[in-house]
User: What shape does this take?
Amino acid sequence: MKKITYFPGCSAHGTSKEFDETVKMVMKSLDVQLEEIPDWNCCGATSAHTLSEPLSYALPLRNLVLAEKLDNTTMAIPCASCYQRMKVTKVHLDKNPDLSKDIGTTIVDEGTYQGKIAVKSMLQYCYEDIGLDAIKARVTKSLAGMKLACYYGCLLTRPKAITQFDSPEYPMSMDHIVEALGAKATEFDYKTECCGASFSISNTEVVIRLTGKILEMAKESGAHALVVACPLCQSNLDMRQPQIEKQTGEKYNLPVFYFTQLMALAFGMPEKELMFRKHIVPVEGALAQIGKIEPEPEKVKKPKKAVEAESEAE
Amino acid sequence: MARVGVFVCFCGANIADFVDVPAVVEEAKRIREVKFAIDYKYMCSDPGQQQIRDAIVQHRLTSIVVAACSPRMHEKTFRKALSDAGMNPYLLEVANIREHSSWVHQKDKKAATAKAADLVRMAVAKSIANEQLHEISVPVTKRALVIGGGIAGIQAALDIADARIPVVLVEKSPSIGGKMAQLDETFPTLDCSQCILTPKMVDVASHPYIELIPYAEVLELDGFVGNYKAKIKKKASYVNFKTCTGCGACWQKCPVKVPNEYNMGIDKRKAIYTPFPQAVPNKPVIDARYCTMLTKGKCGICSKVCEKGSIDYKMQDEIIEREIGAVVVATGYDLWDPKPYEEYGVGRFKDIITSLEFERMVSANGPTNGVPVRPSDGKVPKNVVFIKCIGSRDEAKGIEYCSKICCMYTTKHTILLHHKVHGSHSYVFYMDIRAAGKGYEEFVKKAQVDTGATYLRGRVSKIYKKGDKLMVRGEDAQIGQVVEVEADLVVLATAVVPNKDNPDLARLLGVSYDKYGYMSEAHPKLRPVETAKAGIFLAGCTQAPKDIPDTVAQASACAAKVCGIFAGDTMKKDPMISTVNKEFCSGCQNCVTVCPYGAIVTEEVPMGHGSKEMRTVAKINEGVCQGCGSCVAVCRSMAISLAGFTDPQIINEIVSI
Assistant: This one.
């Protein structure tokens, strides 16, 4: 059994409980033990880094120091924001080791930062450490028939210098994972567009416009549902959907799954435990697609053309 | 007793505004050996030089100090003035009080004046130890090597050959013509590229003074200016050019189809091929990577259909040697690969193409008969978005510099689209329109009016697919808003980058190159075609991105430089070179290691007078030595001396201040 450090973050205990639960289920079935950081604190997003730079490093730093005490080589974080704050701090401190002392002595009183733990998003951990083969091997109920638009949002792969994972503009890791589960990932050009994030509260109009466009493009890609790896993306795309539908007059009907929910589903875990009831947009329509496999259009063999010269000598 | 003359220049206001010139003259007069000192507004002008000539005679001067601009600028001018007055020109010393004082100390006139006086004192002290030196004569092989057969190489070769100097033109691909042969029309006059280029290609092939070696590469270049020896590899073409008539039976029957480089891979060519119908020489070669006879030993059709029996599957690469006096490097450019533009979907969307692909499609001899089509479905596009500066001026993804030609060829492309597709519309996203050149701005203005193209100032941030259209989202900075354009086809003006072989070739030639891979000229303004290595010149995009007019001009300039070297049977060279005192030389060969020009070899001399025992000492090749002084600095036994910079001269300088 593998053991990794787990930082759930605040949304895992509230709005994205289903992410947290399914991560735990999936990891257990993949033989990975999650060791939660004892007495972890807020990562600071997004208030800390908009108000105070030292604080924006100090908060994740305390978590990093605590995480390192657990003696695991890797920490995986489900929430994209938490991951981003932790990784930014790690990269920053690894480059400027003296800063860890400065910040550490003023705010953190838990020990010294060693810089030895790898910080990964849960998506990155599944893709890089567990691997597509292991995921595929664990599938008992293929999701074939489902077409999914994988939405990464802005934080999971950006900026490249910080995340050092996948493409910042057209990532494919989640697409590969859902395809390993048997589903089809659609060609989705809006997979890294901004959803409006926390403006959902302070400037809802912006979120409705941006998220609306994402939904529209996902629908156009032919997807039955969206897949995400970020609590805020999920809440904007799912919770705001009825509101957006009212404004645009379009009916999207796109449930928004966490990728771990779909992993759990494909691993044959009972639907009841996957907390689909927490979703605003009903999931039934999308789940009903499983098993409805369209016959692949037969490839028409082109008659072999006679060899012709493209150009002639003059 | 030395009698030194000092001539201090105002350089208009350049020196005089920041250095008290008369005060410097007064300081000079206080030096014991200075018998004459004077200032003048422009010492380099004829009246200025006349003062020097007169003073030499009147005051019986033994050495001259001119305190003025950098010796790189006017040392030659003043040396000639000395010669004209009957004095050895190497008795001149230049004190650089402009670049080294007035220009860099503009805030402190007093200090600048004191420094100028010091520089003069040093030059005076040095000049006292100056010796009479004489130019060196080196024999010259009157044959030029031109590397690269694009328009730059073609122009240089023709100009040199027209002066009845033999030229060896080496081209790496099967035909000369280069990138220009791929173009349809050329800005700013819309001349047909083929019509102005192919006659020149034919001239090259038929010129009695040009030896054209296609499908070949330069492997080695040894020697020095006037006396190089080049080793050239003729790659195996598997076709005997002497008997081949270019009838075309072989490539018509060849069953192996591969992407056609000439058409940017839009269509296919055969494994035995000529790059394009107007190729020079119009003889096919077999591409050994693809020919199944060469890779698997199966086929042999071309050999069967060739009536002349010209196919020879056993042909080997051949190494030949040529004696060369001067080299013109004209290796051209490559285009930047736009893959890093992931947000545009480059590589995912078939209907995003590069400008050169568009150029091939609109070319009369192109793969689509001159009509642009969408690679995805073959339909003729109506709305075409052109995006400039892809890779250029882009520190994040590409390179920092401006590629110089993209503004103009994109303008040309809007015209070609307008001509070829009725009802079409061009959208151009740009950062700036850089149209500096004769007739360029007028060309852009006229194109904008005639085509009605929509110019949008701003960068494109994203391209996504909607149905079968590409949605291009960018900023229109002039209205401060995000705009989206529905496009059938997107054309990327990708940056000009140096030929990928440049660094290897530069090392082989002993020429320096910059961080991008462009070969470096000796001086950005005053020696733009020379390299730091004597006798090697640069033409076209080998040196920096250039359009055709500039390339041709530079190629002709190279030809003039080459002809200059070949003007006499021998070549004159500055005597400022190193010599080895064999008595002192310990044979450690440190100098051999540090010499950047490979000018130092070793020789065996007797241990002592009449001795049969031999020992190794350093020997300097006069023709190659550039007088940099590196060897002098590393010589532990002080056996090497650099003429014009001898120890007494340097010590005098140091002691004087």
Chain B touches chain A at residues 246-248, 251-255, 257, 260, 267-270, 274, 276-278, 282, 342-343, 345, 348, 367, 462, 464-466 (CB under 8 Å). The radius of gyration of chain B is 31 Å. The longest strand of chain B covers residues 216-224. The mean pLDDT of chain B is 95.
